[in-house]
């Protein structure tokens, strides 16, 4: 198993723990890694489906739904449950439960993805993207806090780092809701959807004036995820960078396989994986594995540009490298 994955879930890098089952859900660390589930959360586990091999024996296949590939190939599949590692944050647990039960929000994600994928031919902006960004944002904010970086809601409003976790998770869930209206200027459309929805999700978790503070911080993160918008808070910077880390080939699979060959779809196909790990020189390291040099576009034009307008520049290092001796050919020919 990759060290980055073990670091993400606080596993022991020095021991052979592939066969361990720390959350006692009946699946080993290796099985959870292969399925893209959380080995520390008993409610997050690979979904098994039966299949018959050529020899007639019943085998168990780990469902690709756990890593979002089936969802991205077939948007008509049922909703993939929203899951993140809670790490004992009780307020976050309440928020996540409300998100899971919010049928309006789930439908907004679906409408956003129809406008993005079906009508605009661009990459996934639906529930799979939301889940990836939320988990990435939570991972980044925790690494920053571990590295001594104080969240802005702590520095300026006297709240806690756990409250900062709710801000980045909620902002991740709401940042692309405006695409349900239109792709262009969607960050602004997300504000008028997000204002009401943020208050609904946080009401009862917070009382005034903290409720208004949390909503305001969430809305700032939403609008500032626009690549050229300056982030005024650490939390907004976290969302901006987390959004930019969803650049691997799974996200561009639908437009790419539909024949949309452009720098966005081709370059994303060249990105094999993105890992968020603890950095050696900075609190956060984003490690990108490429199968083709075209993936540099994703790093240089998207991730680098978002980092430029984020306050996280001093705290994040980015590394990208091509795996293997031969680059993978992504398409046969291109005609204008």
Characterise the protein shown here.
The protein is mainly α. The chain is 46% helix and 10% strand. It is built from 14 helices and 5 strands. The chain has helices at residues 3-8, 29-35, 69-73, 90-101, 103-118, 127-146, 152-157, 161-174, 186-202, 210-223, 234-244, 253-257, 263-269, 296-308; strands spanning 48-52, 58-62, 271-278, 284-290, 316-322. The strands form 2 sheets. It has a 3-stranded mixed sheet. The protein has a two-stranded antiparallel sheet with strand order 1-2. Strand 3 (271-278) and strand 4 (284-290) form a beta hairpin. Helix 6 packs antiparallel against helix 8, helix 6 packs across helix 11 (234-244) and helix 11 (234-244) runs antiparallel to helix 14.
